[in-house]
Amino acid sequence: MRYFYYPGCSMSSSALEYDVSTKAVLGELGAEVVEVEDWTCCGASTAETVSFLLSLVLPARNLALAERMDGDGDFLVGCSACYTNHCKVGEHVKRDPRLLDKINAALSIEHLTYTGKVRVRHLLDVLANDFGPEAIAVRVKRSLSALSVAPYYGCQIVRPYGLCDDSEYPTTMDEVLAATGAEVFPYAMKVKCCGGVLMTTKKDVALRLVGGLLQAAKGADCIVTVCPLCQMNLEAYQGDVSRYMGEDLHIPVLYLPQLLGLAFDLPREKLKLERNMASPRPVLDKLA
Fold it and tell me: pLDDT band for position 43 (50/70/90)?
C-alpha cells in the first residue's frame, strides 16, 4: 500500500517522535510512505480568522502537490487538526463547486491544480482499516498484556468529517490496541475535547478540561493519542493540572505508533520515547 505522507508542522518539529514512530510502524507493516514534496502549513486553526478562502487554499496546495506525484496513493495525515483542514477542502467544494475555480486561481501562481482526486486519510483510519487488527497482531513480538491502555481519540478525527466509526464512542483504536494484547481501559472521555489552544488563551478552562480527561484515566497505565496538540495538552501540563485539580494526575502519554512500536519490538531510536514529556518509564518497567 502506498501513501502520500503529509507530516505537517508539529510532526516535523515539536512532535517529531510521532513522525518517526509513524514511519517506523508503517514500514514494519509493509506500507510505502512517500513524503509530499514541498508541503507547507495547512493553516492550522488560525487561517480562517484571516480569510476563509486562504483556509482552503493552504491545504488544497498540499493536496495538489500530492496529485501530481507519480503513482496512486492516499493522502496520509497524522495530526488531527491537519486531517480536518485537508478534509474540509473537498467537503466545501462539494457544497459550493464555485469554490474550486477560486482555489485553483490562487494555486495557478505555482502552476498547481487541485481536482480532489486524492483521498485524505488519518493514520488511525489506515492502521485500523487498511491493515487491521489481524495484520497488527501477527507482527507483535512483545505482548502488551501487562498494560491497561486508555485510548484517547480527541474530537477532530471523529467529527465533523470523521472516520468510519461512531462519533460519540468510536472503537477503531480500541481494536488496534487489543491486537497488541493490551487491556483496553474503559475510557468514557475518549472523544471529549482537550481544550486545544485554550491552554494559551483560557488556561483555567483548559486545565479543567484536561483535568477531567486525566481523572477519567485513573487506573490505566497510560493514555494513547493520535494528535500532537492533544498529546501536548495531556502530558505537558500534568503538574499544573494536578495542582489545579488538587490531586496527583501524572500518567504516561504515548502516541499510538510508539505503543505499537513497543509491541513490534522496534529499536528505541525508532520510537524516540525520550522526547515524551510525561515519562514513559512506568510503562517500560511493566514491560520489562
Answer: very high
